[in-house]
Design brief:
The chain is an all-alpha fold. Helices cover 73% and strands 1% of the residues. It starts with a helix and ends in a 15-residue tail after the last helix.
């Protein structure tokens, strides 16, 4: 009889853990089932899901770009601006006669340069990442508006460039890019030292410093990767739009941040992670598509994304409370490590200072 409460407690703990880890996946399945029941003729169709995947892949790449520096507790607001100027340059430079492979290289280099500048401003100058990336992003917006003159940029694009957003074996290529990028980021963040270092920098910068983890090196690398991924998203977007507009880009910022933060509540609750971000993008995409098919007005998407962002931040904070409680013991160990003659905290893959 005494073991019954213990079994119940263990079952409750396991069920709670399962829901916290796979809650977004469960929600996604329920949403698909709900909208399929409400709109059986239009929602559960191949063409509908292909349209969702094709249109939301750009948002997924933007969310993954934002997620990378968030792992180190840095925020990159320039993602949307890099995406915007990249899609304009992707067609503008081709209109000047440059071949599209060279244009892709140049645009990716621009994304890397913006990320590097962000890294210098954040880690060397010491400007808060929120302010620094907002500033560089606004500069990019100004350059974008100067380049376009406030008008659409038109040019004849080769079929090989347009094919970047084509469909292969019934699957939109942008979705394939998202899958490849997700696998690479998952390997880096979960299995390589760089990923562990980024998470340590995000959770306990002092412990990272004691173990010789260079904030300047890894935060800058994260921002460079974020810039390049944003630039690639802009290139793929241009292959879809086939027209350059300086106003494009900002509409991806809020959904991307929402997905990255909402993803921190699933798979690896308490910290941003790749598959949680991908699941969050899918949940947001299915919800918006379902609401649109039910006849929701155009402004519902903005309201939904805003409310979801607030909820996502609240859930992420709640999920990370365990880490904050665990931080008490970590702080004690840190003080011990900082004492004269003490050894630094051991972190796998880190060098001794």
């Amino acid at each position: 009889m005494k073991s019954t409460p213990a079994r119940h407690t263990r079952f409750t703990a396991r069920a709670t853990h399962f829901v916290s880890v796979w809650g977004l996946l469960i929600l996604l399945i329920l949403l698909i089932a709900l909208f399929s029941a409400l709109k059986p003729e239009t929602f559960p169709t191949y063409f509908n899901f292909r349209a969702i995947i094709g249109s939301k892949s750009i948002e997924a790449m933007a969310a993954l770009a934002i997620m990378i520096p968030i792992a180190a507790n840095r925020f990159d607001l320039s993602v949307a601006f890099v995406l915007g100027i990249s899609q304009v340059l992707a067609i503008g430079l081709q209109g000047m006669g440059l071949p599209w492979p060279l244009v892709v290289v140049l645009v990716l280099a621009l994304g890397a340069l913006v990320g590097f500048i962000n890294g210098v401003l954040v880690t060397v100058v010491g400007i808060d990442s929120f302010i620094a990336t907002l500033g560089t992003g606004t500069v990019l917006l100004g350059v974008n508006q100067w380049f376009t003159g406030g008008q659409q940029v038109l040019a004849r694009l080769p079929d090989s460039f347009i094919a970047l957003s084509g469909v292969v074996y019934g699957v939109p290529l942008p979705a394939v890019y998202v899958l490849i990028i997700s696998i690479v980021l998952w390997i880096v963040l979960e299995f390589l030292p760089m990923g562990r270092f980024l998470y340590v920098l995000g959770i306990n910068p002092r412990a990272a410093e004691l173990n010789g983890i260079s904030e300047r090196k890894y935060v800058t690398a994260a921002l460079v990767a974020s810039g390049m991924l944003s630039a690639w998203a802009g290139i793929v977007l241009e292959s879809q739009l086939q027209v350059g507009q300086s106003s494009v880009g900002m509409e991806y910022l809020l959904p991307a941040f929402t997905a990255a933060l909402l993803g921190a509540t699933a798979v690896k609750p308490g910290r941003v992670n790749v598959w949680g971000t991908v699941l969050a993008v899918a949940v947001l995409a299915v919800t918006v598509a379902g609401l649109n098919q039910l006849g929701a007005p155009f402004f519902v998407e903005a309201l939904f994304n805003g409310v979801t962002l607030i909820v996502a931040v609240g859930l992420a904070v709640t999920a990370s409370k365990r880490q904050i409680r665990a931080g008490t013991s970590a702080d004690a160990a840190e003080k011990k490590a900082s004492a004269p003659g003490a050894q630094p905290l051991p972190i796998e893959g880190a060098r001794n200072p």
